[in-house]
Each structure stands twice: as structure tokens, then as C-alpha cells.
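Backbone-to-sequence.
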């Protein structure tokens, strides 16, 4: 059995920032568990930048403006106390990681460069060309090694073990040797990222974004908050869903329909292409639906045009975007527009965090940060650049909170952990022995299809009811599905089986939340309820597991300064 004072699960930006903060504390044994090599985590795919009021591009920018932009961007579903705390901590976080070695792009005076991003009143997005997340991730990894954090790569979280609302530890699979291991911990930080692969190939997320931490927390008695709030990024490559960063719009790209028209003038006449992601994604889908897109059906798209930009701007600030366009669309954006269409990008909902100053959850000893968590600072729509700020701010907060908790608790539950590991070993043996049933890829593909067509950008009661029935049927099939590989060493088929189970868990929660939110707000667009309804739905969806039943309740949104108003861009 392994033991850690603080165990961080997930090696993206929030996980490594949490591990770094805990690793800096005197006398604590800190582990970082990840199902991949740390520098391959999803944060490395975050291209555009990190938001903070450092006032390099606009000396008149203020914390209050960032606060309001984020509240407005959330379509007033964000908790304003958490948002105000978040924006107050962001500038310090940026200066801190700059000091730690993140190679930010610089302006002519040597200061961190900042660019415009959608929904913001000032250019406050700091960046490292168009590979900001990649630069941040490598810097965090170096610092974790320096701090003596023990890194467990190729470990898959299976379950969180609790008793009477208290953490005891986790059970995990060491993929390399096939051992199922009990891990005792005084506190854990769940930083496992989002669940975008519910939509399989129609997402910007890496194949590892399967909601593992969210699902494990849910099974351990921690509710999910606002699971229906799935952000669709407006500019995914048309044929693959791969992300074209918001930098492509921030640097001045135009969105054009098949008539060569900058159609955003119809939807956001002031902000145009720099409206918020939910507004732009809806506009693109409306253009396609009304016949002004290129192609048809799932192959339909519009284009983003940067051919009018200075060549050096593209080569210096958007070189990653150019590489992706050439590799996956066979289009050189120096010469031709890039085909794009909205794609699932970010899970605004997640593990219900009940204290934004510690990132604690309802189970003592369990903390959550990053995309796996919901504080809620993003509400119904996240602003571009706020995710990297989120993981740096709340990764540090979670690491500090988990460290303090570890000092206050003792190790416990060895017997329960051993039993849980034995139960998983038995489950492994039975699962890999099955010869008849649906295959894991078959279940996964049908899940993705129903999620994209029925729980995508546009939703309605009939489609959601059908999705609910299909997901329930797939969950039943999953109980007896065939894995197809009985080997013990590096059994990635078994890992995929675990991941699909977690995605089904999350998909059911997403559908349930969407079915009961009878309004349109931010990314949640109901054809049958096109208006936002603050009287009935200025509240968070809370989905909890009671026995085997999903139970839905609500919690009021925290409003401190800004009363809900109509969003105009």
C-alpha cells in the first residue's frame, strides 16, 4: 500500500500547481498521480493565453472590469464572490509563473504581451505565441521535480474510498504492471480535467478527457454542479474538431460564410468576432442551418480568414494554428481561409466545490481544482483565457487547502482500502473474461452520436428525452460489455473500458441537468425555451448519487454586485 499526506490526481496545470504548492510545504509526502506523462496533459493544448489585469496593454484595465466581464460572460450563472476572488488573484499568479520561467511573449519594452479575447473590455490575455498552455505545463513540471513531488505516471484512478464523509484514500491501476493498488492519503486534490470525449471526435479535448475524477467523486458522494453547461468552442477545425485558438480571432481574423460575408455583424454588431464563445458558436450554427455555410450536414462549415493579416503576425503569433491548418485541413492560412465549425471544448460544470478559498468539497479531505471542478466562476459560459488563470489560481488554492487539511488529519481506513482494491481486482477478472456482449468502442460511438445530435449546441425536450433513454440503455449494455484483452500488463483496453464507464456516468448527469433547465442561458440553448429565465433558473443544478439513483436539486447563484441583465455584444 502506498501512503501520501497529499495526493494530487491529474497532471494538467491545476494538478501540477497544486502539487507544487503542497510540495513546498515542510514535512509533507506529496504524490502526483497521472494516467499519462505529465507534459502530455490537456493543458498543453490550451493555446491562446491566460487572463489577468497586469495592465501592460491597457493601463486603464481594472480588476472590476475583469470581474464584470466574467460575470457577464457567465450569463450571470457564475458565483460572484468566487469570481471576485478569482480575478483578484490572477495578476499575482501570472507574475509568479513568469518568475518561475514561463516564456511569455514580450512587447517592445520587455513586458508580458497581452491580446484581445472574446467578451473582454480590455486586452488582458497574456500569451506565449499560441502555445501558452504548453509553455506553462513544462514550467510546472520542472518546478514539481524541483520540489520533490513523487510522480506516478501511467496510473488510472479507479475509485475514491470514503467513510462517514471522510476521505480514506483511493484505489488505482498501475497500467504498466497491471497491479490494482490501494493508496492511503490524508487529503487528495482531484484535477483530472474535463469530460469532452463524451462527444468523441467532435471535441477539442485530448483522448484522456473522459471525466474520470468527476465520476469517481460522484460515486464517492460528492455532487456534480451544473453538468449541463458544456462549452462549444466556435472554431474547431471542420473535419476533426481540433482547436483553432481564440487567438485566431483575437489577432483580427474574420469569420466568413459561403457568400464571403462577415456574418457576425448580424449577431454581435459591436464585438463582431470578439463576442463570447457561446454567441459566436450559435451564430455559426445558425448560418449553417440557414444554408449560408459551405458543404452539408456534418460536413458543413464556415471559414476563418486571416489572409489580410501581416505575414509576420501569422508566422510569429499564430504559427501553431498555421501548422494545424496545414496538417489537418491542407490549407495554408497565409493563402486561404481555414474551414471551421463549433466543437465541444470545455466542461463548465463539475465537482461541486463548496469553498472557493480552499477548494474543499462535501467530503472532508477531498479537494478539486481546474476543469474537473465547479466553483462556479465560469457559470454558463467561460471567457477565453480564464481557464489557464483558473488552473493557476485555484491549483495553488487547492494545494494549500489540501496541505492544511493533511496536517489536521490522521491516516485511516487501511482495511476499507484493501477491500476496495480486492473488489476491483475481482471486477477486472470478470470483465476481461467476458466473451459475449457489446464492445466498448460500439458503446462509446453510440454515446458520442446521441450526445452530439441531441445534447449539442441546440437542445429541446424531445431530443433530450431520447438521449436520456439511449444513455440509460448504453449504461445497461456496459454492465456486460466485452473488453477483448485479458492481459495484465499495459491493458489499455481495460483502461478504455473504465473511461467509457466514467463518460456514461457524466453523460447521464449532463442530460439530466439539460432536461430540467427549461431556459436558454450561455452555452445551454433550448429551442423550446429560447429566453433566459432568471426568475426560475438563476440557480445551480446539483446532481447527486443516492444509492443507484441520480437526484437533482438546485442551489441559488451568489449575486453580490451585479444583478442579471441582458447580454449585448
Amino acid at each position: 500500500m502506498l501512503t501520501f499526506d497529499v495526493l494530487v490526481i491529474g497532471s494538467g496545470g491545476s494538478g501540477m500547481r497544486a502539487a507544487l504548492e503542497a510540495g513546498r510545504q515542510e514535512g509533507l509526502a506529496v504524490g502526483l498521480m497521472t494516467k499519462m506523462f505529465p507534459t502530455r496533459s490537456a493543458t498543453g493544448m490550451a493555446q491562446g493565453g491566460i487572463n489577468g489585469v497586469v495592465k501592460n496593454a491597457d493601463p486603464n484595465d481594472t480588476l472590476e472590469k475583469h470581474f464584470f466581464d466574467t460575470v457577464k460572460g457567465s450569463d450571470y450563472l457564475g458565483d460572484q464572490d468566487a469570481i471576485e476572488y478569482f480575478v483578484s488573484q490572477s495578476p499575482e499568479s501570472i507574475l509568479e509563473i513568469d518568475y518561475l520561467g514561463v516564456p511569455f511573449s514580450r512587447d517592445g519594452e520587455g513586458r508580458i504581451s497581452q491580446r484581445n479575447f472574446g467578451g473582454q473590455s480590455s486586452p488582458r490575455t497574456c500569451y506565449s505565441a499560441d502555445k501558452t498552455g504548453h509553455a506553462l505545463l513544462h514550467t510546472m513540471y520542472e518546478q514539481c521535480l524541483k520540489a520533490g513531488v513523487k510522480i506516478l505516471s501511467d496510473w488510472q484512478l479507479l475509485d475514491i474510498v470514503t467513510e462517514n464523509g471522510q476521505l480514506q484514500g483511493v484505489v488505482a491501476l498501475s497500467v504498466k504492471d497491471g497491479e490494482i493498488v490501494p493508496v492511503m492519503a490524508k487529503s487528495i486534490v482531484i484535477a483530472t480535467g474535463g469530460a469532452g470525449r463524451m462527444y468523441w471526435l467532435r471535441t477539442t479535448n485530448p483522448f484522456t478527457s473522459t471525466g474520470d475524477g468527476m465520476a469517481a467523486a460522484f460515486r464517492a458522494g460528492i455532487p456534480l454542479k451544473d453538468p449541463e453547461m458544456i462549452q462549444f468552442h466556435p472554431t474547431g477545425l471542420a473535419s476533426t474538431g481540433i482547436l483553432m485558438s481564440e487567438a485566431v480571432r483575437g489577432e483580427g481574423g474574420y469569420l466568413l460564410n459561403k457568400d464571403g460575408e462577415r456574418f457576425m455583424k448580424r449577431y454581435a454588431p459591436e464585438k463582431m468576432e470578439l463576442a463570447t464563445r457561446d454567441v459566436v458558436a450559435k451564430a455559426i450554427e445558425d448560418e449553417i442551418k440557414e444554408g449560408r455555410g459551405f458543404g452539408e450536414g456534418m460536413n458543413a462549415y464556415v471559414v476563418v480568414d486571416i489572409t489580410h493579416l501581416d505575414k509576420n503576425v501569422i508566422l510569429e503569433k499564430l504559427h501553431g494554428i498555421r501548422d494545424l491548418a496545414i496538417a489537418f485541413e491542407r490549407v495554408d492560412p497565409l493563402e486561404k481561409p481555414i474551414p471551421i465549425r463549433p466543437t465541444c471544448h470545455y466542461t463548465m460544470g463539475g465537482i461541486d466545490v463548496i469553498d472557493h478559498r480552499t477548494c474543499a468539497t462535501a467530503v472532508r479531505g477531498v479537494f478539486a481544482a481546474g476543469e474537473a471542478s465547479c466553483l462556479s466562476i465560469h457559470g454558463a459560459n467561460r471567457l477565453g483565457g480564464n481557464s489557464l488563470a483558473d488552473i493557476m489560481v485555484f491549483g495553488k488554492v487547492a494545494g494549500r487547502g489540501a496541505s492544511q487539511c493533511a496536517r489536521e488529519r490522521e491516516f485511516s481506513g487501511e482495511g476499507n482500502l484493501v477491500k476496495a482494491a480486492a473488489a476491483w481486482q475481482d471486477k477486472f477478472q470478470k470483465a476481461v473474461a467476458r466473451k459475449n456482449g457489446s464492445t466498448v468502442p460500439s458503446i462509446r460511438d453510440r454515446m458520442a452520436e446521441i450526445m452530439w445530435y441531441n445534447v449539442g449546441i441546440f437542445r429541446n425536450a424531445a431530443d433530450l428525452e431520447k438521449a436520456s433513454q439511449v444513455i440509460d440503455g448504453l449504461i445497461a449494455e456496459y454492465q456486460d460489455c466485452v473488453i477483448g484483452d485479458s492481459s495484465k500488463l499495459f491493458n489499455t483496453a481495460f483502461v478504455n473500458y473504465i473511461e467509457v464507464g466514467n463518460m456514461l456516468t457524466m453523460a447521464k448527469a449532463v442530460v439530466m441537468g439539460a432536461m430540467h433547465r427549461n431556459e436558454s442561458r450561455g452555452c445551454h440553448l433550448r429551442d423550446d425555451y429560447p429566453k433566459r429565465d432568471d426568475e426560475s433558473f438563476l440557480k445551480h443544478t446539483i446532481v447527486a448519487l443516492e444509492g443507484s439513483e441520480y437526484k437533482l436539486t438546485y442551489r441559488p447563484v451568489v449575486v453580490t454586485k451585479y444583478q442579471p441583465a441582458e447580454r449585448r455584444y
